[in-house]
Design brief:
CATH superfamily: PEBP-like
Shape: globular
Structural class: mainly beta
CATH architecture: Alpha-Beta Complex
Number of helices: 1
CATH topology: Phosphatidylethanolamine-binding Protein
Strand content: 25-35%
Number of domains: 1
Largest sheet: 5 strands, antiparallel
Radius of gyration: 15 Å
Order of helices and strands: EEEEEEEHE
């Protein structure tokens, strides 16, 4: 059985996120690729969050109902894969919001969940509703962590 893994051509696991993908650069999403989704996968959920934010976990990007046949999210996506929906990030916006730590080096976790269903949720929901809806439907999780510290 192939391991379910999430990678990026922009940085390596545990490495530094290039400025291009942050509020200090172009603030575009990095390319993400995955493989090894388990049999029975009906959709994916992608969560990018920062557990080191001074106000608690900060959500940077929430995608759900990514089609099961998707294996790549290109850099700076101009269009979502058909059927994909977006949740509200901590800026109360849809879409990607790049790393922008206010204080020091932060960790950013890209988490991809393979689900045995699609989620019956409206566009623009917040992460707690997405997490609640996917409970008991997670077949596998892949995670990619990288770091960023703003130039001072």
């Amino acid at each position: 059985m192939t391991a379910f893994i999430l990678t990026s051509s922009a940085f390596h696991a545990g490495g530094l996120i290039p400025e291009k993908y942050t509020c200090d650069g172009e603030d575009i999403s990095p390319a993400l690729t995955w493989q090894g989704a388990p049999a029975g996968t009906q959709s994916f959920v992608l969560v990018l969050d920062d557990p080191d934010a001074p106000v608690g976990i900060w959500d940077h990007w929430l995608l759900f109902n990514i089609p099961a046949n998707t294996q790549v999210l290109p850099e700076g996506m101009n269009a979502l894969p058909p059927g994909t929906q977006e949740g509200l990030n901590s800026w109360h916006r849809l879409g990607y919001g790049g790393p922008c730590p206010p204080d020091t080096l932060h960790r950013y976790f890209f988490k991809l969940y393979a689900l045995d269903t699609t989620l019956s949720l409206p566009e623009g929901v917040k992460k707690p509703l997405i997490e609640a809806a996917m409970q008991d439907h997670i077949l596998a999780t892949a995670e990619l962590m990288a770091k960023y510290d703003r130039p001072r």
